[in-house]
């Protein structure tokens, strides 16, 4: 186990220490594959401070885990933003954002499992919940709203469709982590086809008469032309 020799912190450097604690806890999580070895004492040893110094910033191990996972999902937001940057077509934006979500989860399996393995009670959101609400969820809302403006979805269903799209991306990511040996195809081709099917299938089920039908037909023709 790596132990850092840490000089005495100057006055006012509490935020720096908190960042070092989060970084060290994240390292322990990744190195060990789960949170069993990430004790407060182990984190303190890694940073080079005493356990009481950790408790000045985090109430307990669960609070520290929440902070580590929240920082991880802040990076996910950057990935989703980059994936949709410069893309004008909201349908392509949706697929790119969904695939960025899946790729990021698969690239960071330990933190992803830990983040979603800790249920939170209604009315008491975790830091992870707050970060997701302000980042990934907000991006999905914006993209699905743009699709509704294009006629693919009924605007009244935006919130429901966002949840369904997110659930699809999360389910794909979780299955890829649990069963990496399945035929996912080069460059996650199977994952992308699943997200595409979800979007087009949901549009075809629009509650309004004819909502999304024309848009789906146009999109299918475009996809077939691209494949050929």
Layout of helices and strands, plus pairs?
Elements: H1 14-32, H2 40-47, H3 51-55, H4 61-84, H5 90-107, H6 109-116, H7 127-134, H8 136-149, H9 158-178, H10 189-204, H11 213-227
Helix pairs in contact: 1-2, 1-4, 4-5, 4-6, 4-7, 5-8, 5-9, 5-10, 7-8, 8-9, 9-10, 10-11
Describe this structure in words.
Helix content is 68%, strand content 0%. It has eleven helices and no strands. α5 packs parallel to α9 (158-178) and α8 (136-149) crosses α9. The model is unreliable at 5-12 (pLDDT under 50).
What percentage of residues falls in helices of 4 or more residues? 55-70%
Please count the helical segments: 11
Principal-axes shape call: elongated
Largest sheet: none
What share of the residues does DSSP label as strand, in percent? under 5%
Count of distinct strands: 0
Structural class: mainly alpha
Order of helices and strands: HHHHHHHHHHH
Give the termini distance in whole angstroms.
54 Å
Radius of gyration: 21 Å
Poorly predicted runs are 5-12
- Average pLDDT number: 85
